[in-house]
């Protein structure tokens, strides 16, 4: 991280917190940042940075999920300063991403909370999202009538939110009076909690049930939240029965969302469930070109290809890499070509190379499946050992340039046909078994591929 503020800038807690926010914005999604971190207030007391949360719900959420990230970022920025999270004395302002309940659907300018940039026009279509895009277009033309609910699922940063909001924007374009609302599932929970706190739960129900289209993002965060699920169940029924459109996104298939009531799981499957798969090279390249054009940059195709080839995880990373290249070119005043792209992404590529070494793949896979590193080479054949070993072989084949005999050798002197068999087996299992596919994709992500 390059943005270390001068020590004088850190004298008061506000400045330190502001500097920390710059880092955190890079390390979280916009939604996470706006919903959970932006509402915090920072005060520096000696060597202790105290962060005050506006309410207990926000405080607990941060404690459970963001504390490690906050502490690590603070340690990078101001080593030695300790972090303490407290409840603010007074109820703080409502987070920017979650306007006060009364604002929902009533502000004609942005009551719907849609990002106008998330349109079909700026969404690149490829093999990985073809079906999802076709379904989304259909829904935008006949909301409430074609597929209800439309359930879009897929891994992190693959374009679920963008596509869902494209539908919302298209509905509004056709009918400016339509009551459309985009809300993250965390936003829905916050909204509900606030209504409960203020005894306005009936208003909450009315607001949500009057909508023409409800777009609810990342529904996996409903897991285990019984009161929220209960409330959403009734909202869902009211909208569905009234022929209003519901669009849901999630990181997995409905039946695979843990601790989600069965009645919700089954309702989510009533309409159409479509997946967005990780994008292939051509689609990634088209996305890079599209994003470059949006930024007013005439990017040579070879540079777009280079970025798409090196960054294989998800679109947010692709965007990050492109931003780096643009910043580097602006700063050095050099032209856009392979050399400048390589210079701009050197750190990233170096990290990636270290991550995808044969040794590291074995280590990461062993840790992921909780087996011993030495089991990668051992003769043990029990499934809980053999399967991770096959996964590691398959990843090594996919991510490195080692030959099959070299891979076999590194996995306890096995024959190259064993490696080939492992790769085929894992490919097959990934198609048949979503858990295996998810594990494999998680590992690719951990390995930075
Ligand atoms: N097919 C695409 N064409 C153009 N841009 C895309 C495409 N897919 C994703 N993006 C861009 O990638 C970024 C991340 O996309 P988005 O937030 O929609 O992903 P997501 O699947 O909802 O992620 P998360 O799982 O974190 O909620 C956005 O800036 C979006 O515009």
Automatic annotation (TrEMBL):
This is Chromosomal replication initiator protein DnaA. Belongs to the DnaA family. Residues 146-359 form the AAA+ ATPase domain. InterPro entries: AAA+_ATPase, Chromosome_initiator_DnaA, Chromosome_initiator_DnaA-like, Chromosome_initiator_DnaA_CS, DnaA_C, DnaA_dom, DnaA_N_dom, DnaA_N_sf. Residues 113-329 are annotated as: Domain III, AAA+ region. The lineage of its organism: Bacteria, Pseudomonadati, Pseudomonadota, Acidithiobacillia, Acidithiobacillales. It is found in: Cytoplasm. ATP binds at residues 157, 159-161. GO terms for biological process: DNA replication initiation; regulation of DNA replication. The keyword Cytoplasm applies. Its main location: cytoplasm. It comes from Acidithiobacillus ferrianus. Residues 357-426 form the Chromosomal replication initiator DnaA C-terminal domain. HAMAP family: DnaA_bact. PANTHER family: CHROMOSOMAL REPLICATION INITIATOR PROTEIN DNAA. One of its GO terms (cellular component) is cytoplasm. Keywords: ATP-binding, Cytoplasm, DNA replication, DNA-binding, Lipid-binding, Nucleotide-binding. Coiled coil: none annotated. Oligomerizes as a right-handed, spiral filament on DNA at oriC. Domain I is involved in oligomerization and binding regulators, domain II is flexibile and of varying length in different bacteria, domain III forms the AAA+ region, while domain IV binds dsDNA. Residues 330-449 are annotated as: Domain IV, binds dsDNA. PROSITE patterns: DNAA. It comes from the Bacteria.
């Amino acid at each position: 991280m390059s943005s270390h503020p001068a020590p004088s800038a850190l004298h008061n807690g506000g400045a330190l917190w502001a500097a920390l926010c710059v880092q955190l914005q890079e390390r979280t999604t916009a939604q996470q940042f706006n919903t959970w971190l932006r509402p915090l207030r920072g005060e520096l007391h000696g060597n202790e940075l105290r962060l005050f949360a506006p309410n207990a719900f926000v405080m607990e959420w941060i404690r459970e999920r963001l504390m490690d990230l906050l502490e690590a970022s603070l340690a990078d920025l101001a080593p030695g300063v300790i972090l303490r999270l407290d409840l603010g004395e007074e109820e703080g302002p409502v987070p920017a991403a979650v306007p006060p309940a009364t604002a929902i659907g009533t502000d004609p300018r942005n009551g719907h909370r849609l990002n106008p940039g998330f349109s079909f026009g700026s969404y690149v279509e490829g093999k990985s999202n073809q079906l999802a895009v076709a379904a989304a277009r259909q829904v935008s033309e006949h909301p409430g009538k074609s597929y209800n609910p439309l359930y879009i699922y897929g891994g992190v940063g693959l374009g679920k939110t963008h596509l869902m909001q494209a539908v919302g924007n298209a509905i509004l374009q056709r009918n400016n009076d339509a009551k459309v609302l985009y809300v993250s599932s965390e936003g829905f929970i916050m909204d509900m909690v606030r209504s409960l706190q203020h005894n306005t739960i009936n208003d909450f129900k009315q607001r949500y049930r009057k909508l023409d289209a409800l777009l609810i993002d990342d529904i996996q965060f409903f897991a285990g939240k019984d009161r929220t699920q209960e409330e959403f169940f009734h909202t869902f029924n009211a909208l569905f029965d009234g022929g209003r459109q519901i669009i849901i996104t999630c990181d997995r298939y409905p039946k695979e969302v843990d601790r989600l009531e069965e009645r919700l799981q089954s309702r989510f499957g009533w309409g159409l469930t479509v997946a967005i798969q990780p994008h292939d090279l051509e689609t990634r390249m088209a996305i890079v070109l599209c994003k470059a054009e949006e930024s007013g940059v005439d990017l040579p195709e070879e540079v777009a290809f280079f970025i798409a080839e090196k960054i294989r995880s998800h679109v947010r990373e692709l965007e990050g890499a492109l931003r780096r290249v643009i910043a580097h070119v602006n700063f050095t005043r050099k032209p856009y070509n392979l050399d400048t792209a390589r210079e701009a992404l050197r750190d990233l590529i170096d990290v990636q190379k270290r991550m995808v070494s044969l040794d590291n793949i074995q280590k990461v896979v062993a840790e992921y499946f909780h087996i011993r590193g030495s089991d990668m080479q051992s003769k043990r054949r029990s499934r809980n050992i053999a399967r991770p070993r096959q996964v590691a072989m398959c990843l090594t084949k996919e991510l490195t340039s080692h030959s099959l005999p070299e891979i076999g050798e590194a996995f306890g002197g096995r024959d190259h046909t064993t490696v080939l068999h492992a790769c085929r087996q894992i490919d097959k299992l990934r198609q048949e078994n979503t858990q295996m596919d998810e594990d494999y994709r998680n590992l690719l992500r951990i390995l930075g591929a």
